UniProtKB/TrEMBL annotation:
Residues 242-262 are annotated as: Disordered. InterPro entries: DUF5819. Pfam families: DUF5819. It comes from the Bacteria. This is Secreted protein.
Amino acid sequence: MRRLLRVLSTSAPALLAAALCFHFAMTLAYLTPQNPLQLRFARLISGYMNPFFEQNWHLFAPDPITDTRLVMVACRLNEPDGSTTETGWTDITTPYWESHLENRLGPATRLGRSVTGAARMIYTVDPTSLQMAKKLDQQRARAQAGGGGAEAPDAQVAERLRDEVKKEQDAGVQLGKSVLERAGSAHCDSLYGRSRTAAVRLRLAVLKFPRFSRRDLPDSKGELTYYDFDWAPYRPVAPLDATTEDRRKTPVALQAAAAEER
């Protein structure tokens, strides 16, 4: 027993160092511009990083953040008489951030990042794949203008690469939807009790801030856009901590929505 403990105590630093090296190597591969090596191991890299380690860098603000994004959920509940009722929309992201402000060491930020990261996986478009598609369209247009003919080898390679990128994006979309549906199911359980929810529906609310020329206006006066998902079956999940549910402050996006209704 002592020998085992001695081996563990001596090998633990090496194992920890190896785990850290692996994590930072995967993070570096995830953040580098797209390249052949990254495309070859895209499934492994994305599977490790998404959705819990996904990062959204705005170093030196080349594309500064211009909006607030909230994930909302509606619940379809089973009633005792056999009927169903559909609830209104409830914000499920703001409570996480407010809970994080109250307790910096709590789990709220990790839960919140998994939800917002899943939403980004669904709606974020890869600029490299867009450039590849544009380049292919230009090459085909030139080939048709020149009388047709077989595709150039580089065009065939680009076509295969684009297909691989599309497969990875489709897999990311499905994973993002799965995470959001599970998060929505957990919130419906927390709000209305377990075993009552039959289906959940997610909504992404995007509030674009007023431009700099209108900086005197509050954020709630910005442009509010909704992206609605279809109803999805309820998924049994572990219960949420009740401290993330009862928040007092109304999110800016919901304030803007209330103003629109009035």
